[in-house]
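Before going further, learn to read the protein records used in this course. The integers have meaning only within a learned vocabulary of local backbone shapes. To see the layout at work, look at the sequence and tokens printed below.
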Amino acid sequence: MNISPLYELPKSGILIPTSDWHIGAEEHDEPHFDDMLRFAKEERAGMVLGGDHIENAVAAGKAPGEKLLGQSKWPTEQFKIFIDKMLPFAKRGQIIGIIRGNHDARTRREALVDLCEIAAHSLGVPYFGVGVIARVKHGSQVYTTAWQHGRAGARNYFMELDRMMHRYPTAEVVGLGHIHVLDARRVAHLEVDPEGRESVGMKHQVRTGCFLKLAEYAREALYAPPVIGAPVIRFGRKEHAIDVDTKTLSWI
């Protein structure tokens, strides 16, 4: 797991972990994606780019024809849009880094071309591969978070986050994308302070949403329609406090 440099949040104390844009897919929700970007610009929010940024269907793997038919733009054009939309945020120092998703990885698997690594190089931001432990600072407070794209597709989508929380026990927030769910929950745990007093602390599990409307493969599998959007995480400046908001940037 990569560890990012300490990232200082803006005055708003906002971090937006966002994933599963699927730029170039027929069902990519560009209007709401742009709404999210406008909010991030206005708040000067920090951003973790969590994978599956482009649809990236290639002529390989299982049922390549069906995948290719689900694209409105070819991968080269998708990648250019990705760079163009993220460049202003990179220049303002708002991107903590980029994580690779399974769609992004198609080109890596088939042709040894890692588009996310090229994107990070082009934007001048860190590339975290499959995930990152990201420490963020707001005022006098420092927080530890952990992010990956995700892989499992279980009905109980918090199970994978439980495993992640066990793997990274110091993380106060853990988050995954992949399954196009926008949701969060708090998990209580016991803490002992330096003087030996026990207290109850809270950690946060986050699913980072998507910007892909109900695709044909999802309809065929009878998946539920996704809630479009991304979480907005607000960190306390003077007191150690975390608020995970899954409503401000959500659309049905």
User: Anything to note?
Assistant: The radius of gyration is 18 Å. The mean pLDDT is 93. Residues 151 and 178 are 6 Å apart (CA to CA).
